[in-house]
Amino acid sequence: MTLPLEGKAALITGGSRGIGRAIAERLAADGATVVVNYARNKESAQEVVSSIVAKGGKALAVQADVSNHAQIRRLFSDAEKAVGPLDIVVANAGVHIEKPLIENTEADYNYVFDINTKGVFFILQEAAGRVRPGGRIIVVSTGGTKMHFPKMSLYLGSKGAIEQFARSLAMELGPRNVTVNILSPGFTDTDMLPEQYRAYGASLSPFNRVGTPQEIADVSAFLGSDASRWITGENIQAGGGV
Ligand code: NAP
Known about the structure:
By secondary structure, this protein is an alpha/beta fold. The chain has 7 helices and 7 strands; from the N terminus they run βαβαβαβαβαβααβ. Strands 3-2-1-4-5-6-7 form a 7-stranded parallel β-sheet, with helices on both faces. The mean pLDDT is 98.
C-alpha cells in the first residue's frame, strides 16, 4: 500500500517538542521524509528522529534559531541538501509570553515578534521560493486570535500578523499549485500551555478537555496531503469546539 505522503519531503520548525513533534511524527508515519528543526533542545530533537526511524520512517534534525534570518536560509539549504526539494513546510515554532500590555518591555516585544512573526515571515519567503509545484505550506497560529484574552497582546498580535502573511501568500502561490493554510490549535497539552489555562481551556470545550498534540497533527496530515488541494488561504480551527 502506498502511503499518502510517500516520496514527499517535509520541514517542520520547532519539531522537537509539543505540536511540532506530533506533526513531524504524523507526516513521517504518512511516508514523508521529515526535517525536524529545533532551537536548543538537541536531545529532544534526536529523540523525535529516533522514534520516527524506529517505526521505519525517515527523519533528521537540523538546529536553527528561526528568529535569525541567516539561520533560516541555512536551515532551508541544509534541509534541501539532506532530503532534496521540499514539498511541505510547516512554520510551527513559536513562543508565548503572558503579561499585561503595560508591563511588556522592548525586549519582550522583540523576543516574541522575532520568533513568532519575523521568523515566520522569512520562513514563508524561503518556502515560497523553494517548495515544489503542488507543495503545501502550513502556518501554525492559534484560535486565540478570534477571542479576547487579557495579558496576551504580544502573543496574539504576533500571531494575527502571520495569518495575514499566509492569506496574501496563498494568492501569490496559487498559480504554482501551492497551497498556504493556517492551522489554529486551541488549548493543547504541551509545555507551552500555562497551568492556569488547563482547567479553563477544558471548560470552554464541549468535550470538556484540552486537545492533544496528535489531534492537531492529524489536521496537519490532511493539510499536507493531496486531499486538501482545493483549500488555500484558509484558517482551519482545531480547537475542540472552543
Ligand atoms: P512548545 O511545546 O513550547 O514547543 C515549541 C517548539 O518551538 C519547540 O520545538 C522549540 O524548540 C521551538 N522553538 C522555540 N523557539 C524557537 C526558535 N527561536 N527557533 C526554532 N525553534 C524554536 O510549544 P507548542 O505548544 O508545541 O506550540 C507549537 C505552536 O503551536 C506554536 O506556534 C504555538 O504558538 C502554537 N499554539 C499552541 C497552543 C497550545 O495550547 N499549546 C495553542 C495554540 C497555538 P526547542 O525544543 O529547541 O526549544
